[in-house]
Design goal:
Length: 364
């Protein structure tokens, strides 16, 4: 059942090209987004004055990326919240709000409760769910299914990348429908989305270097991640993945926040993973990396193959294939999943069933 892989997590990491392909191509028709059955018309978009995306854990991180895509393509303000906060915060939700729930299992109690609260306040509910017929799916007005297939490992991997694809498609559909996105850019993004499965394959063929980095660093008792822009979202997801299966103390920060506190932690040998995929922010990332290096940190940089600048200040570099800035999360998270996996193995942990965690959290 693990298809020759030692753990479900590695099997599922390797299933991402397929999951991404399925989630994408089932919703494309003649190179246009085809979300048959999901009601987001031009009239609906005229009425919707804000969007709430609510989820937990990894699905919440997909929501953070989605906010950037929707605001960029469709120019509608988006708020992202973790479900356990949303449900107790008396949020500004009314009939002009679109509520998007994101959940792999569709059974996460907090997400379900948040959805009920949003409905009670009159919002339209769209959900992005992996498990067909799950509670979140049944209680939503519209459902966009991800096609990841069953996810068994507690650490979510293929659910995340397929959620990203689903949310990009929703964002594209909104942008082209309300005419805030030009046709040229719309087709350019779709063209790039279509080649992402091959690019993920490419990363998966070269895991040896990542395994070596994991073997050299698994003994650290603290690892932090930093990035700017969309790389902050991926830093958070990378950190969650690492902590939940390696039990290493880890967190993520926007790199610009270093000087506002975190830099006090940096000493000789501190491991920092810097995600730097956004061209317009490279210079800023370089200065942040220099700041931590000057205090003795060791820095692993995740960047695009074409980036010749940031690599000069790195101790080690993990490259990902070129893609559009807005789409890099689908690629940059893959080496981080693999890194977390090998660190967990090196520490002798139960990768698929980390201590204290359950696959789906159906209690508060
Ligand atoms: O099934 P859901 O997507 O609603 O689950 C949400 C979180 O519990 C889940 O993503 C959790 O954070 C994972 N263990 C992360 O790898």
């Amino acid at each position: 059942k693990k298809d020759g892989f030692e753990h479900f997590m590695m099997k599922e990491i390797n299933e991402q090209p397929k999951g991404v392909h399925e989630t994408l191509f089932r919703r494309l028709k003649e190179d246009k987004v085809y979300i048959d059955g999901i009601k987001i018309t031009k009239k609906d978009l005229e009425r919707i004055n804000k969007i709430y995306i609510v989820a937990c854990g990894t699905a919440y991180h997909a929501g953070l990326v989605a906010k950037r895509a929707i605001e960029n393509f469709a120019k509608i303000p988006v708020y992202v919240d973790v479900a356990s906060e949303f449900r107790y915060s008396d949020p500004f939700v009314d009939k002009n709000t679109l509520f998007i729930a994101v959940s792999q299992s569709g059974e996460t109690l907090d997400t379900l409760a948040a959805l009920r609260e949003a409905k009670r306040k009159g919002a339209r509910v769209l959900s992005v769910v992996n498990v067909v017929g799950s509670s979140v799916a049944r209680e939503s007005d519209d459902v966009f299914y991800t096609w990841a297939g069953p996810e068994i490992a507690v650490a979510s991997t293929k659910a995340f990348t397929t959620q990203l694809i689903a949310l990009y498609l929703i964002a594209l559909h909104m942008g082209i429908t309300n005419e805030k996105l030009t046709e040229k850019r719309y087709f350019e993004i779709i063209k790039e989305l279509k080649v992402l499965p091959e690019k993920i394959e490419k990363i998966l063929k070269n895991t040896k270097q990542i395994q070596e980095l994991a073997d050299n660093n698994f003994n650290n008792n603290s690892i932090f991640f930093m990035g700017r822009g969309i790389d902050v979202d991926i830093s958070m997801e990378a950190s969650l993945k690492l902590k939940e299966i390696s039990y290493i103390n880890s967190f993520a920060i926007p790199a610009g926040e270093l000087k506002h506190g975190t830099i006090a932690l940096v000493e000789k040998g501190t491991l920092v993973i810097a995600i730097s995929t956004q061209k317009r922010l490279t210079e800023k990332m370089i200065s942040n990396i220099k700041e931590v290096k000057a205090r003795g940190a060791k820095v692993i940089v995740v960047t695009l193959e074409s980036n010749k600048d940031v690599v000069k200040v790195a101790d080690d570099v993990i490259y990902i294939p070129e893609t559009l800035d807005i789409l890099t999360p689908v690629l940059s998270i893959i080496p981080m999943q693999i890194f977390a996996y090998y660190v967990s193995i090196a520490r002798g942990n139960d990768v698929d069933k980390p201590r204290n965690l359950a696959k789906s959290v159906t209690v508060e």
